[in-house]
Amino acid sequence: MDKNREWKEVDLNENDAPEEISADEEKLLDELGLRGAARRKFLGQSIGGGLGVFALQLLAKEQALAALDVAPDAVFAQSAGLENAVKVSMKVNGAAQSLEVDSRMSLLDTLRERLDLTGTKKGCDQGQCGACTVIVNGNRVLSCLTLAAQCNGKEVTTIEGLAKGDELHPMQAAFIKHDGFQCGYCTPGQICSAVALLNEAKNGEASHVTRNLRSNARNVKLTDDEIRERMSGNICRCGAYPGIVAAIREVQSGRETAQTWHFATDDEIAAVMTDNDQAEIAAMKREGKTDETV
Ligand code: FES
Ligand code: FES
After folding, report:
1. Does the pLDDT of residue 233 top 90, yes or no?
2. Does residue 237 have its Cβ closer than 6 Å to ligand 2?
3. pLDDT range class, residue 27, cuts 50, 70, 90
4. Hey, what CATH topology would domain 170-253 get?
5. Domain residue extents for the chain
6. Cβ distance 243 to 273 under 8 Å?
7. Nearest atom of ligand 1 to the alpha carbon of 233
8. Looking at the chain, which terminus has fewer C-beta neighbours within 10 angstroms, N or C?
């Protein structure tokens, strides 16, 4: 048995009073209402547990505070859940919203966590991927880098606000038509970005690849290079870029273009199947498995 352990066992014995306590400590114990056996037990436990006088002082302070009456004009700190609260009123997808948020809360978190609009996605949360793009007063913004408090009095449109009932926004329909997505995670941000981009073109706003910055032309025609440059802040890990460019080109030009993909026909599937594949499928059909399970 080591020495320290021996010492603790002696001190933890509630019948042995600790060697010395000061007058102040005596007073504290009195204030705590600890007398006689209760005092000895408390001292043995607190010293054996390494608490000591500091613990006594804290306990005494706690008791003293608990006994205080609350002053009528007392000011309490806000709960840790909502520090620095600010009131924000904004229109989100056409509906007025008034809420109290932490002044540091991003628009992205406000949409997702407070308004349950989870269509807007959190990718990097640091302004690098574009997944969180929404439209504020007609301009695309990265909602992860925008404070909700900055949007007071503004109009916010998210992916949920683009369709009219069952009728998709033309950009949404074009993304489907041109296969502008695969997993879909970046898609809400891509579509919001693309919708706002059309306004930028309409207003004649220049991009890094615009040739003539002096023309001030309205309704800039978006070439594929322009679309790629203007959409470069929206990253797609699935690499659906050709479809995204085709979708934006079609909506901006207003000229329908044929989609470049279609579901494979039976003949096309048969043409790429080996004899083994054919035999396997025939066997599965004989066993009564449906087309879906095959
Ligand atoms: S989540 Fe905002 S840019 Fe990536
Ligand atoms: S569709 Fe998967 S990340 Fe763009």
Report:
1. yes
2. yes
3. confident
4. DNA polymerase; domain 1 (1.10.150)
5. 3-63, 84-160, 170-253, 263-294
6. no
7. 3
8. N
Say yes or no: CB of residue 187 within 6 Å of ligand 2. Answer: yes
Both tokens of residue 168? 């998709």
Q: Hey, what CATH class is 84-160 in? A: alpha beta
Q: What is the pTM of this model?
A: 0.65
Tell me the C-alpha distance between 146 and 159, whole Å: 17
How far is ligand 2, taken at its centre, from the CA of residue 112, in Å?
Answer: 19
Task: Determine the distance separating the centroid of ligand 1 and the alpha carbon of 232, expressed in angstroms.
Answer: 13
Q: Are 213 and 197 in contact (CB under 8 A)?
A: no
Query: How far does residue 241's CA lie from ligand 1's centre (Å)?
Result: 18
The candidate with the shortest Cα–Cα distance to 209, out of 222, 196, 219, is 222
Give the pair of three-digit tokens for residue 270. 């048969």
Going by alpha carbons, the residue nearest to atom 4 of ligand 2 is 236
For residue range 92-114, what is the model confidence (pLDDT) as tens digits?
999 999 999 999 999 999 999 99
Ligand closest to 123 (CA) is 1
**Ligand 1 pocket, residue 185 CB under 6 Å:** no
Q: How far is it, in rounded angstroms, from Cα 159 to Cα 169?
A: 10
CB burial of 14-23 (b: ≥16 within 10 Å; e: otherwise) equals eeeeeeebee
For ligand 2, is residue 181 a contact (CB within 6 Å)? yes
3-state secondary structure 152-189: CCCEEECHHHCCECCECCHHHHHHHHCCCCCCCCCHHH
Per the model's pLDDT, the better-predicted residue between 169 and 206 turns out to be: 169
Residue % of the chain over a pLDDT of 70: 74
Containing 67, the helix (H) or strand (E) segment is helix 52-67
